[in-house]
Amino acid sequence: MIAIIDCNSFYCSCERLFRPDLSNKPVVVLSNNDGCIISRTDEAKALGIGMAGPYFTNKPLIEKHGVATFSSNYNLYGDLSWRVMETLRILIGKQHVEVYSVDEAFLFIDFVKPQELESFTLHIKNVVEMWTGIKVSIGVAPTKVLSKVANKLAKKNKIATNCIWILDTPQKIADALRATKIEDVWGIGSQYAEKLKKYHILNALDLSFKTTTWAHQHLGGVVGARLVRELKGISSISMKDELINKKMIATTRMFGEAVNTLQPIKEAVATYASRAAEKLRRQYAAASYIGVFLVAKQNDYNATYKRGNTISSYTILPQATSQTQHFIKAAVTLAERMYVPGTTYKKAGVTLSNIVPDNAIQGNLFAAPQENNNRLLMDVIDSINASQRNDILKFAASGTNRDWKMRQELRSPKYTTRWEDLLELK
Amino acid sequence: MNDTFSAATYKGTKQFTQQHIATANATGFGAAADDFMERGIDLNEMLIKNKPATFFFKMNGNAMEGASIYAGDILVVDRSIKVTTGKIIVAAFNGELIVRRYQQSFNKAILSAENKRYADIVLDEFAQFAAWGVVTYVIHSF
């Protein structure tokens, strides 16, 4: 059997852990730059606050009900996410845990006897809640897709299910599939949902009756066939290898304020390039492709933009590197080339690709081999930044006063990762 | 239940490799002590028994001075330890996190300060109370 464990309103739960005054009160967390609502507690949902809706459209409702509102505090969420996953690894062994996202993990629990599934999952749920303070829901089923279905049902009626739902008989599976709308099936996007409705496939059960050949034709080939097989109870999505290194790394942000001069844009892409390089070094890799993109404000771009309001460009470096200064140099050059005076920009991003392990960088016949000695410098910068605070050491190209920086007006303290942010108790 | 997993000991964060032995590649005569180099003492090993469940707080106030917890001290709090009578705990009480000694007798539970100027908090059915974690160590600077 496979279980998916999913933290309830994860970001909000993290905020609540250090704010007992907010337990049972509505809480929302906003995205980067305070643009959208990305996490809501049940109490906030009950008030009719929409998910992923822009903050400002919900603002009247939020103010009327005094909903506690937070900017995203990824340092805190990342730390608590690690704690939840580590607890799971300690409980059932890391070879049985696949971290799926910041707040979800698949557990491979074939070793549990069928009659003990319920007490086993309850035990996991209780230990995670006790150790980390984060409440979770667990769905158990023979396949990953079905476990997602079970998890949704567990969350739908938390009191009746105690946040655990187990699909261990054909009857329970059929009932669960019938209760799951087609657009709520894991892997079915809104476009496919519309298409399937035209074939009178309204819920997951309808889809599970289709043959894999049919799914192969109508539901995106291999992926669709696999999905239908999973709905039929045949496990087809295997456990991923642990820690697959990313093939591409991107850092992209909205600007706090739209900018129309070159200097802040150069500073922004230099900062994003450093951040991306940091992520790259964290997985002991080097990259040779660097891309930069700029997004202009709607209705404020001219004909040179081929695809809407986004313009992008890239450079291939002579040799894969993990050193920030190489990426900054390339990113700033690209930004200079792409910048069109008189245009107002709202967003920029840097992507790194062609990623290789940093101990296997291929030499270039036409370029002098680079000393990786600077790696030592990078390590020093990384560990100072990690232990003090982000960006305490940075390249001058990143600028010193950043008007374009993310707006994060309502961020809570970094309770678990900074000495100076520890919560004070009476 | 909780005792089953208390063996999840945190082994500390310090790395120790050949490079940390200052004279490992001495060109002259290597020091005899090289063979006896150890990683050194890591405080995390002592203070953190279960890393995913361990949190730090700062004491602000004099409620627990009798237990030698002074304002400005760092509290090491382990959520995986069961709250039992006599333990110093972090408690969520009326929407606030506080540090007190938890005492339970046959008919009532109280949170008591270690300072005569503070009254006991009786945990009746009307109290908004939840145990947050058990204080395992306090780091005090003289």
What does this structure look like?
- The complex is a heterodimer of chains A (426) and B (142).
- In chain A, α4 packs antiparallel against α5.
- Chain A starts with a strand and ends with a strand.
- With 426 residues, chain A is an alpha+beta fold.
- Chain A has a 5-stranded mixed β-sheet with strand order 5-6-1-7-8.
- Chain A is built from 15 helices and 13 strands.
- The relative contact order of chain B is 0.20.
- The model of chain B is unreliable at 1-7 (pLDDT under 50).
- Classes of the chains: A alpha+beta (426), B mainly beta (142).
- β13 of chain A pairs parallel with β1 of chain B.
Number of strands of chain B: 7
Strands ordered across the widest β-sheet of chain B: 1-2-7-3-4-5-6
Taking Cα atoms only, what radius of gyration of chain A do you get, to the nearest Å?
A: 24 Å
The CATH topology of the largest domain in chain A is what?
Alpha-Beta Plaits
- Tell me, rounded to a whole number, the average pLDDT of chain B: 84
Oligomer: heterodimer
Q: Which series of helices and strands of chain B comes N to C? A: HEEEEEEE
CATH class of the largest domain in chain A: Alpha Beta
Report the sheet with the most strands of chain B, covering strand number, pairing sense and barrel closure: 7 strands, antiparallel
SS summary, helix count of chain B: 1
Low-confidence stretches of chain A: none
Question: Can you give the helix content of chain A as a percent range?
Answer: 25-40%
Instruction: Spell out the CATH superfamily of the largest domain in chain A.
Output: Reverse transcriptase/Diguanylate cyclase domain
Query: Outline of chain A, from the CA principal axes?
Result: globular
* SS content category of chain A: alpha+beta
**Strand fraction of chain B:** 25-35%
Name given to the CATH architecture of the largest domain in chain A: 2-Layer Sandwich
Topology as H/E string of chain A? EHEEHHEHEEHEHHEHHHHHEHEEHEHE
Q: Helical stretch count of chain A?
A: 15
Name the chain pair with the biggest interface and residue counts per chain.
A-B, 26 and 29 residues
